Structure formats: structure tokens, C-alpha cells
# Entry
Amino acid sequence: MRHKGRKSHDFVTRQGNISLQGIYYHCGCSNSKSVNILVSAGRKYSRAADELIVRYAGSHSYQQARGYLRKDFHINLSSETLRMRISEISGQIRQHRNSGQNIDKWENMANEKLYGYADGVLINVRQEGWKECKLLRYENEFGTQLSHRALLGSIKDFGLLARREAIHIGASDAEEVVFLMDGAEGFHHHIKRNLPSARQVVDYWHVCQHIGECATEIYGRDNADGHRWRRKYCHVLREDGPRKLLASLRISRSHAKTDASAKALMKLINFLARRIDRIDYPTLLEQGYRVDSGPIESSCKKVVQARMKGPGMRWSRKGASAMLEIRCALYSNIWENLINNCA
# Structure
């Protein structure tokens, strides 16, 4: 027995939600087709509307995105629908990026340095508290090509992610891979393990921060002598190198007036000595290397904090991972290719 009828199907377009109608047939042979396939080839969202939804939901809270989409394009979707769409598209983007297809590979990498940056940002995860999101940034020497990846997971998995992304963008074609980080031993160990040929540099300003903390412990907070001491040794580090700085600090420690001062100086000496091969700034600057990690600090604010650290925001682990994937794609050069392949 065969039955003929007519049903409508809601279709989301850039001009708003529209309702399409089509004839359907139902019979016992199991060959009947649903009305959404008949009227829209199985799609609920047009490609243009899909990109709008992802952009708005990836740049604003779900409640704000819902209001903007309704006001600007007459697209009526609930916050839960936006959440589900972000989760679905992010899964497609993750699968596409991890597959290593040719859209990720950069061109003209020969005779250029590839700079990598790594840092952590805390995100409030439900039932877990504050968890570190590890953010990776790759860019070419002239800043014309850019890629972000993020991971809410272990430092071991982050090292594997850094290696995989370097392979995808064509790091083997680059003159050299240079990683700038804040001196954390976890990042250093796993980048060295997964990218052994990469040259590592500790951010100059991060080392200066440690010198400033030592000055505060010796002279106290907001002390003029402490400020002069910090400026002096930061200058020695940048102009004369870590070995001369260490020699001066060891002399200062031998003349320390208190045990607290000697302990603070010894802490700074140990920090510098363990990283001496990564903080030779006179040589690095002379050879044309960057010595500051400002780009990753900017990425932490733009990619993660701007969307995921609003007042009172808490995320499920799955929701945070999905949003990180969307945000990293938005701030990478391959966004247009990704969304066209995934939406």
C-alpha cells in the first residue's frame, strides 16, 4: 500500500528561517524518502547560514549570538541548538585538521624560520574547577601565515599535537623551527621530545620577571634600590649574556646580608643555570632571532579569554574542547577552506 502526502521542512538560510514543502511517498518497501531529503538534499542549514551561525556562536555567548542572529538575519535558533551545532562543526573541523590534508600546508616556507609558541590559559570546567588549556601558535617569519591549535588535556598529548601540526603545515620545508616559551619545564621537555631539531628560546621578559621577583624579595616591594637592581641585571642579561649575569649574581650571593636574600639569589641562579643554553640573548639577537613571546600572549587573550573567560562562565569539558576548536580555526589562515569543507 502506498501513501502520498505533503510535509514542510524548516531550512535555515542567510535570509532567515524558511519553510519548504514537498510531496512524500510512504510504502511498505522501505524506499520512501524523508521530506528534508526531497526538498533540501538532506541539509537543514545552507552553507552561508552555517558559517554565520558558527561565527556568531564562536564570537559571542550563546544567548547573545541567538539575539544577533534573530535581529540581523531573522534566523531563529535556541541556545541549545547553537551549542549542538558548534559541537558538530567542531568535530568535523578537528577530524579534518588531524587528517593532514593539503589545505593545512603552507607555501613558500623555504629559507624562512617557522616560529612556534606555547602557553597555558586557565578555564573554569564544571565539576573540575580551573583547568589549564594549552595553546599552540605557529607563524612564519614574516607573520603572513598563522595557525592555532588548543588542547584541554595532558602535556604529553600537547607535545604530540605540536608535532602533528608542524608536519601538516610543512615544517620540514622551513629553514629552522624556533620555539619561544615561558621557561616551563613541561613544555620544554615535550617539545624537545617531539620536535628534537627545534631551537628553544625562553621569553626574555619572563626571565626579567624572575629577576624582578628576586629584587622584591631582597629589597621589598616598590623600593627604588630594588628597581635599579632589576634594571641593571636585566640589561646585563640582554647585552652581556647569561654567563656574566650568573657570575655577578654569585658574587652578590656571597655578600648577601640575610639568609632570605641569599636564598632568593640562589633560586634565581638555579633558574638561569638550568636554562643557560636558551637565554643567550646577545647571540640570539645578533643572529636575528626573536626573543619575546608576545604573540602567544596576544593569542591567549584573543583566542581563549575573549570568548571563554567571561563573567561567571563555566564549561563542560566537551563544550570547552568544541569551542576551542572553533576559536582556533577562526584565528588561523585556513578558516575559509575549513568551513567550506566542514559546514
In short: The chain has 14 helices and seven strands. Residues 79-98 form the longest helix (20 residues).
